[in-house]
Amino acid sequence: MFYKAGLDIGSVMAKAVIMDNDKVLSYSIMPNRGSFYNAANNVLKEALEKAGLTYDKLNIIGTTGLGASFITYPHIKNTEVACQSRGMNYLLPSVRIVIEVGDQSTRVIKVTEKGRVADCVINDRCAAGSGRILLIISKVLRVNINDLGNFSITSTNPVRFSTSCSVFAETEAISRIAEGIKKEDIIAGLHQSMAIKIYSMIQKVKIEEKCAITGGGAKDLGLVKMLQKIIGKDLLVPDEPFISGAIGAALMAAEKEVVFT
Q: Which NCBIfam families would you find in this protein's record (predicted)?
């Protein structure tokens, strides 16, 4: 048995996976609640409990994400882009373009057949291009963020957002509400704006036949469908989009051939 853990401690969510060789035994996902340190400890503890293991049984731990530097136990850290590339290659080996829509940024990664990064474009200058704008608009519209997709797919007339700034997008959404525009049309318009931005990013690395989406944005059916419409291709979605980075962290740590004893 060779047990390895992978942790992806993001700006909002902490994710952990436990693997035995190349098999995922368990995973855990939980909000950070303002503490990277506590989130990293708690998410690993829960994943270990689900796998029926204890910390001392782990051979190696791989980490990634904004909060990885707050982890105090021995670990091997790799970049988020590299871990996403490796993790998505594990989950969906045929994919060559990975679209990661996270809270802080959106990344488009071109992946080799071995799961390495061939090219990458990152949009992290403004929240309008990331999942953060979805959270902002959900609060403005008083719609649960998990229900945005269901609203969006019922829209028949998406609103056109004229701004690329999250602050102004919020203001614009409030104005649309005052004008009596339906919530579903506002949400669909936001999804359309995001999809156009992401498509422009994809064009920079050149589109491939097999594309996938991961991160929190992959759980938004409205965004996924709008992206498919704009890109003109079906998007593959992992069964659990949140854990691809953690899987990549575990695999890459093991490939460095360093074992903790």
A: CoA_E_activ
Rounded (10°) angle between helices 244-255 and 80-91 = 100
User: What is the pairing mode between strands 76-77 and 23-31?
Assistant: unpaired
CA dihedral over 193, 235, 124, 42, signed as positive or negative: positive
Say whether 116 sits in a helix, a strand or coil.
coil
Each residue's pLDDT, cut to its tens digit, for the chain (261 residues) gives 899 999 999 989 999 999 998 999 999 999 999 899 999 999 999 999 999 999 999 999 999 999 999 999 999 999 999 999 999 999 999 999 999 998 888 999 999 999 999 999 998 565 555 777 888 888 889 999 999 999 999 999 998 887 556 567 778 888 888 888 999 999 999 999 889 989 999 999 988 889 999 999 999 999 999 999 999 999 999 999 999 999 999 999 998 865 554
3 state SS of 31: strand
Q: Work out the number of other CB atoms within 10 angstroms of the CB of residue 7.
A: 30
Q: pTM score, two decimals?
A: 0.91
Residue 103: closest CA among 261, 219, 239: 219
What residues form DSSP beta bridges with 246? none
Q: Let me know whether 121 and 7 are in one domain.
A: no
Distance of alpha carbon 197 from alpha carbon 216, whole angstroms: 17
- For residue 32, what are the domain limits? 1-80+243-261
Number of domains in the chain: 2
- Give yes or no: residues 151 and 209 share one domain: yes
Kindly state the tokens that stand for 37.
């340190």
Residue 131 CA to residue 116 CA, distance in Å, equals: 25
Residues 187 and 230 grouped into a single domain:
yes
Indicate which CATH number applies to the domain containing 186.
Answer: 3.30.420.40
